[in-house]
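Objective 1b of the project was to move from sequence-level analysis to a structural picture of ligand recognition. The entry below was assembled by the postdoctoral researcher (A.K.) and checked by the PI before modelling. It contains the amino acid sequence of the target and the SMILES of the bound compound, adenosine-5'-diphosphate.
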Amino acid sequence: MIRIALKNLWSQRRVYGWVSLELIILSILAWVIVDEVIVRSYYGNQPIGYDSDRLAYLNITTYPDYSPKYSAASSDSVEMAKDFDRLYERISTWPGVESATIVAYEIESRSGYMPHLVSGTDTVPTYATFYLAETPFFSTYGIKPVDGKTPEELENPETGYAGLIVTESVMDGLGKTPQETEVVSIWGMQQNIAAVTNNVRLNSASPQNTTLFYPIHRSNVGLMYSSQINMDNFAITIRLKDGIDPAKFVDENRNALKEKLTSGNLYMSNIETYSQKSAKLRYNLGYTNSNRIGIFLAIFLVNMALGGIGTVWLQTKRRSGEAGVMKAFGARPSHIVAILIWEGVILTTITWIMGSLIFLQYALKSGLAEAEYFNTFDGVRYYPESWVTDFWTHFGIVALIILALMLVAVVIGIWIPARRIARVDPAVTLKDE
Amino acid sequence: MALITLDKISKLYRTKEIETLALDNVNLTVDPGEFVSVMGPSGCGKSTLLNIMGLLDRPTEGTVTIDGSKASALGDRELARFRNENLGFIFQSFHLIESLSVLDNVEVPLIYRGIGARQRHEMAKEVLDKVGLSNRLKHHPSQLSGGQCQRVAIARAVVGNPKIILADEPTGNLDSKIGAEIMNLLHRLNTDDGRTIVMVTHNELQAADTDRVVRFFDGRRTE
Ligand SMILES: Nc1ncnc2c1ncn2[C@@H]1O[C@H](COP(=O)(O)OP(=O)(O)O)[C@@H](O)[C@H]1O
Ligand SMILES: [Mg+2]
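Corresponding predicted holo structure:
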């Protein structure tokens, strides 16, 4: 059966050359799209590292000095800290709000600030998030220490103020386990690492990263300046009570909040939910556009697949005369279907191998093979090891998915007409005129 | 007892525009070892008759009985097997499979009988030798002359050793010299191997050489 299928393919190689070309292009296109979809969903399924469901962000802005509402008396940092306290008080007791924290370089938008931690010969760049130590930062976000303590315990002045708090990946980069103690140098100062938390992602569009959570005590506002963190960078993050829909909360409370949340030169300029903020970030990073291109490509792929189905469909219909001869000499309908399907399977397999090799060449040459999920950076692996992060396993599994997709398309395109021509009485196709 | 019995066979072709009664209440029996010619003007239903006799088509009315089996009682599987074991077809336009070599074409009926590759080659070579084509095994049908193609088709029809050969104008596409060679082959199949042959022809001389001539006009037997 396979031998006959091979002979049929070989003897009709001119016709099947074109079909093959179509299938090779289909397989390459399938590679481009399927691989992208898999990597994206792999990114998307990485744990974000905190509980984003009921988070909302309040932008706190200062009036510029030319504004009529500007007050020179309120412009020094001590006054500003007091104003912040007032805003914080008001939002903490706002109906529906469970907790609130004051943060600079909030997790979803902290890409700019990168202090380095140095220990001996190891240097680990970190993305830093600063928080006001008196506010429940960890419990608001739901970031947990790795030693089994609760987020609240990190915020306890007894433990929480004792030094820096970093994610596991930082310890990894320093070549330490999370349980070891470590003194590091930051901004030229020696500080000890007081606690280690689970990893968090740089933002919802990026992998997990090395993160430093830097507590700032209210009495130590001067440090903000020495570390070049301006009050302007602070915002308030709130967690809503269980059962409250964040989008609805934001819509219903925006105006009242704008009215009530103002003190000195500070006022709340905007409030948005986690998903709104994340969507904006993805848009700014170009993800939204590339999603659109992705949808366009996917439609193109479906179109190509339909074209492929149509081509093999027509090819199969052309074979009715042959099917009649085979039946006249004793072929069962199932024999005819089987031979035609075998031809399709062989053709698909050959074109799949060719398409995959072409894509592999492209992947190796274009730098796709060097993608961040395949690699470690300064000894830190930001993407947990899985089949996606191992180049050859990744290649193999995606290849198999593509083979399966192609086989489905080709087999459908052959099976339906093949069944029809296999059922026809041979006399119908064996006309002598 | 008759090998082939057609009992009150009618065949009605229905297309959107027109209904054609290709066969109208035809009775015919063929005895084992007989060589029967079917004659009649073009369009009188000869091919239809042969197709129904060869179980390539179903009659609208009537029953076909071959070697004691009623055709209408056979399912897909049994029908395939029955054709494979009992019937060999020769067509005016050969109907060889273009993609297969001469040898492969002749092996086709054996494949469906589940015979192994080596034995298939042996059997196919033997019959190709008999029709004088042992030096063309690897050729493809497109590389052969009409007479050679028809000899391949004859080899294919007999390789499975069927009792019955059905030939629809086997010399219709060939010149008279080559046609005579083909007729020779058919006569040898009949006299040497004892195969029953039903052949459609337009050639009175060829028909006169056979055991019996059956004549049709407008879907009815006239003789
Ligand atoms: N598949 C078909 N559909 C409709 N009409 C057909 C079909 N096959 C044959 N016919 C008609 O049936 C009649 C008998 O055809 P056929 O058996 O091929 O005649 P012959 O072989 O004697 O020339 C003709 O009128 C022909 O046009
Ligand atoms: Mg005819």
